[in-house]
Specification:
Two copies of one chain form a homodimer.
Chain A: H1 8-15, H2 19-27, H3 34-47, H4 53-60, E1 65-69, H5 79-93, E2 99-103, H6 108-120, E3 126-130, H7 137-144, E4 149-152, E5 172-175, H8 177-188, E6 195-199, H9 205-218, E7 224-226, H10 231-244, E8 249-252, H11 255-267, E9 274-278, H12 282-287, E10 290-293, H13 296-308, E11 319-322, E12 325-327
Parallel strand pairs in A: 1-2, 1-3, 3-4, 4-5, 5-11, 6-7, 6-8, 8-9, 9-10
Antiparallel strand pairs in A: 10-12
Chain A binds a DNA duplex (30 and 30 nucleotides) through helix 2 and helix 4.
Chain lengths: ~325, ~325
Amino acid sequence: MTARQPTVEDVARRAGVSRQTVSNVLNTPEIVRGRTRERVEAAIAELGYAPSMAARRLRTKRSATIGIHLDPYAGGISGIVLDRFIHALTDRATPRGLRILVYAAADAQEEIQRIRQLREGGEIDRVVLTGTFEGDPRAEWLAEHDVPFVAFGRPWGEAGTGAQMGDPLRPWVDVDGAAGTRAATLFAREHGERVVFLGWPAGSGTGDDRERGWREVVGVDGLRWTSLDSVAEARSVAERGLAERDVDAIVCASDTLALGAHLAASHAGRPELAVVGFDNTPVAEALEISSVEQRPERVAEAVLDLLVADPTTDEGPWHRLIEPELVVRARDEG
Amino acid sequence: MTARQPTVEDVARRAGVSRQTVSNVLNTPEIVRGRTRERVEAAIAELGYAPSMAARRLRTKRSATIGIHLDPYAGGISGIVLDRFIHALTDRATPRGLRILVYAAADAQEEIQRIRQLREGGEIDRVVLTGTFEGDPRAEWLAEHDVPFVAFGRPWGEAGTGAQMGDPLRPWVDVDGAAGTRAATLFAREHGERVVFLGWPAGSGTGDDRERGWREVVGVDGLRWTSLDSVAEARSVAERGLAERDVDAIVCASDTLALGAHLAASHAGRPELAVVGFDNTPVAEALEISSVEQRPERVAEAVLDLLVADPTTDEGPWHRLIEPELVVRARDEG
DNA sequence: GTTCGGAATTTGATCGTTCAAACTCCGCCG
DNA sequence: CGGCGGAGTTTGAACGATCAAATTCCGAAC
């Protein structure tokens, strides 16, 4: 028969102080006299006391828990960056005393519903949004209901444009895609002038951003190919392109596209053709394709910084652009 | 100025009943008379009432929350299966009214510490273990402290051996690796008799299990190659092997190995050589390599089944082997 | 020696729910 | 007609912490 778990009352009795003093040692140690604090800490250690978060939540109406959505797996490698981000977020949240609760939801409406339940039930008190888009109803709802949140991804137009950039009610963290492709393109130019961009159809903020970085380096007459984010389509697009013109390197909007381009190049008898991907997924790693690394760990760190900041007292900026890093692989070295 | 969130008291007043009746409608609707229940449900809907999980937890000492560990990302594709599992678990847990809390920990000891805190704080009341190994201290600790848990992976010897198989205190769910490689080998034999197994060094339960399925089909004189789980090493092993002997197909213990084998085959001028991987990761998908799919969704479902079962009243079995599924890709068809 | 005031500590109330026991109906049986 | 019993409902207490206000302590100032 196991003994009941010790409470703050038990600790207090043992240390010869009152409940509240124990509570103070836990939450505001600086207001407790040194000798008293030591006695209480000793009692805590002896009893193996751990505070009841349930009781704390009920009283304080705070849970120190972050909610984040997890999609069902859809195949492909695009989800990996998000998973890495979540791993990093979990890793970084723990030392800050924050917990992470993941939830499922089929669409934005359902996600709002779920957030509402979790929030009103006191299970979470902050949210991290992913996969945001312009006019995202989730962000609107969260802002309207005063739920602190940070988005991974720019949901409200491009960097530098629009008044919402500095809006403390719409904080976000994103990776500077243009900087990534700029670095990739500069690197690719070492192999020759004709650096093609293999991107997605225009219209996706992320894709346009990545294209911009390349465009800034190659100028207006740079050659651009377009493909959906599929290996097969990217491959056939690249095969056609390579047959038509001489090309020195290909900078891609994703590793999926890069893989297609790489396969096309190999098939065209040019396995050494420089191809640079984006996201630095295991596919790029395995095939030794250079790729732009998003550094999800830094994103996670920045997200947490913004998430614990208080818009009413703290100063901005309320958005962060993380500088990605080009990872050059053996295939392209020397 | 926003109104205070409604409580069970508010709902009760509105419906003209008592606190407890509202509580009963929520938790044991069958004991409430039909007309009364309807009135209460109407009041709940009108007020938009959502129960406070914090208060419920405090009172019942249950949280309906599952804790699961998330490692930091280590590169490679091996983590993907685990991520898919977690996605599936989240997806399946929600409709069962269970929540999922993820936590970080550097090693087994730290994980035990974290579980203890989360558990005593009432944040989680069940755990899913991953990456278990024989004599895993985490499982020992959990069993000893009466924390319900289920392991993804067999931590206590092989299936069919040992008395612990039916132990309700050590429940697990795993994928039947042998069945997977058996199917893979049978498929590979359509391309010829000489089906090689490319596996990891002996000693890992998972690897040995997967080898067994192949061995059962090819017999004692089947040829086996060994490599650590790295593309580069697998490739060089396969290249050497292919140079030495004629081979009709290669069955691999992982997609990483399969990728290495595939590259070796292509390099040796045999891009059409049948290679079968394991885990059905995006890499296999992208390169159109056939692979054995673990079906993490089924694993998740089984884990949840065991996790909500009560060892003292329910009957076994307390372990489940999930039958994996061979995914044949275009490259190998026809 | 009394008064003042800040620091340290204690006390009573409270958060929102569920448990356990008590109570109210109401029909049925003897 | 009184007592019994079960279904349905209500009431008081408890879960374990923190908040807010009250109290004690103690040295300095007058």
